[in-house]
Amino acid sequence: MGEIILVQLGNRTSFCELLSEHSNGKRIRVKIGRNKEAKLPLNRVLLHTGTNCKSHDEVISFSTRSRALMNEIDLKIAWEYLSGEEKTLSSRHIAEACGLDKSDPHAIAAVLLCIEEDDTYIHSIDGGFFCRTAESIETRVQKMWEDRERKKEISDLITNLDRNELSPNLTKNQESHLNHIREYAIHGDRYSRSGRAIELLSQIKSGSNESIQIYAYNKLTECGLLDLDYPREIAIAEIPRTFDRDILLEANKLTDDCHLEDEILDLTALDTFTIDDQNTIDRDDAFSVVDETIWIHITDISSLIPKNSKIDSEASSRVATLYTPDITVPMLPPSITEKMGSLDPGQDRQCLSIKLDAISGESHFDWSIHHTKIRSDKSLSYLQADRILVDPNDPLHQRLSHVREMMRHHETSRVRKGALELNRPQLSIKVLEDKKIEVKVLQKTSPSRSMVAELMIAYNGLIGTYCKNNRISVPFRIQSDPEESLPLEMPEGPLKWYSIGKLLRPAQVTTTGGIHSGLGIENYVQSSSPLRRYLDLIVQRQVVEHLHSRPIGYTDSEISTIANVSDSQFRTLRRIENDRIKYWFLKYLNSQYLEGTAANNLKAVILENFEDRPSNFELVDFPYRGKCHFPSTTKPGDQCCLKLNGIDLWHKTAQFSFEGTA
């Protein structure tokens, strides 16, 4: 049998039974509930009631009676009666002022509970009680009112969000909390205040954190505060979609005037062409043909952007231009990518150019590198270039055909050295202004695309050779041979592309050089896209400085550091691009096959078949890979028919079922 006491347990008060006191007089042992005990510091005891109990039921009875008495206590009345007292008050004084029996332990306990709940008028200091001043009470009452208003504002916000009825005139408090919800909807648990957002949203939505996040995202889109197609991947990666004002100002002050005219080879008299996609606005490569000689030109961005300038630092942090079906986030400001740095027709531009003359039966080149000035005569699309290549009567047919033939020999030479020919088509998706999704399948075997791709491979390989021969520090890209032999004899198609892709080792960056087995080129660098990739700009800087016999700007150590950081970030950008392509392609499938009139029957090639889990396939009409359960009677390489059952745009997945072999 122990005494009933009132103690502080965490952030609440509770009645319990005192079992014993420690011999040092600093701790006590109490019974909490029917079967649970605890050891507490002595200063956690708020009241010794003087009432002993025989069971826990008597503790509950005492608590119930004391809490019932709280309804009869008005601390404001007690304050008005006692506020003239300057001495320390006891709980008995306060109970008496409230009209209660000061000798009743239930009344004393009720007083303590009331003060614990609301100390606006009377508060506790070191075990004693004091009346607050009128000024202090006024301040606290005002603060309590403001707190209640803020809570009401938040409650209204959450309720209206659930009803899709957000007010256009939100208070600052509501805007702040709505921003927490928005950031959580985008970033999920990565958001630093995700706990607060979940606490708010849990009032109207239960479930896992992810389900709450999805709910918040959908609600914000329904209220018009988020676009359903918002690129969350870009926001999560914290990629800036615009440039700061000081960067734009610095870019606008740049000039493409050449201060080294006597050191630059003037090729403006040569007929020069660019070949790009129809909507390209940042042209960084061109070529010229003079008799049997081919010139490959890459826009010289290194001479345009000073090293360590604000623009250079910004490009370094962005690493590369990000291309998605609906958004382009450039590495450099538009005044550079679309104007001063773009090889547009009729504009004089500095370039880093390579002169090629075929020797040894056109499988090898006599070549040299030059800092040049060119002027593009015409911008061609791939479609236009393909038409020229098949039209003998076109004025440009002979020159383009010569380039194509030389690049065929160059490709054949690489293949002999072990280069892989992976002609898997590429999915091209554009989101038009009316949100219409335009899907195209680009064949790598297109004559002009193959030609331009080989021109860039030749250019990058020769720049790498130049750097290796002259001991210029650059980030070479190498790729080791696969551990297993590649299925090169397999028929061209999805299964071959998939099988080879699984065996290829990832390319690595090094400053020492080596073989790139997949390309069949030794000492390969990337230098053909300085408008779009920062490492290409770095390589270009090194080469241009060497051509003019100036000190090289970067050491091996600096190149290695820049390359490793950039390569990691570049992989992140490519992952985002692939994720956004998948999102828009799945949205296209949804509109065409689930919501549209297209027959919901898609042909696919089975890439693998596991009994215990979904297996990979690739659609025949689109270079898209997904997963599906296949019967044990099917095998890799079989063509089949699949039914599209559903699309999950949040997770970017599609649900297919096997309909039969094709």
Word description of this protein:
There is one protein chain. With 662 residues, the chain is of the alpha+beta class. The protein has four domains: 2-132, no CATH class; 147-228, no CATH class; 245-580, no CATH class; 599-661, OB fold (Dihydrolipoamide Acetyltransferase, E2P) (Beta Barrel). It contains 18 helices and 27 strands. The protein has a seven-stranded mixed sheet. Strands 4-3-2-1-5 form a five-stranded antiparallel sheet, covered by helices on one side. A five-stranded antiparallel sheet has the order 25-24-23-26-27. Helix 1 (56-69) crosses helix 4, helix 6 crosses helix 7 and helix 14 packs across helix 15. The longest helix has 39 residues, at 556-594. The model has no long low-confidence stretch (mean pLDDT 92).
What can be said about the biggest beta sheet? 7 strands, mixed
What's the tally of helices?
Answer: 18
Ranges with pLDDT <50 over ≥5 residues? none
Can you count the beta strands? 27
Give the mean pLDDT. 92
Percent of residues in helices comes to 25-40%
Rg estimate, integer Å: 37 Å
Q: What is the domain tally?
A: 4
Fraction of residues in β-strands: 15-25%
Distance between the termini: 84 Å
General shape: elongated
Structural class: alpha+beta
Question: Strands across the major sheet, in which order?
Answer: 8-15-14-11-10-9-16
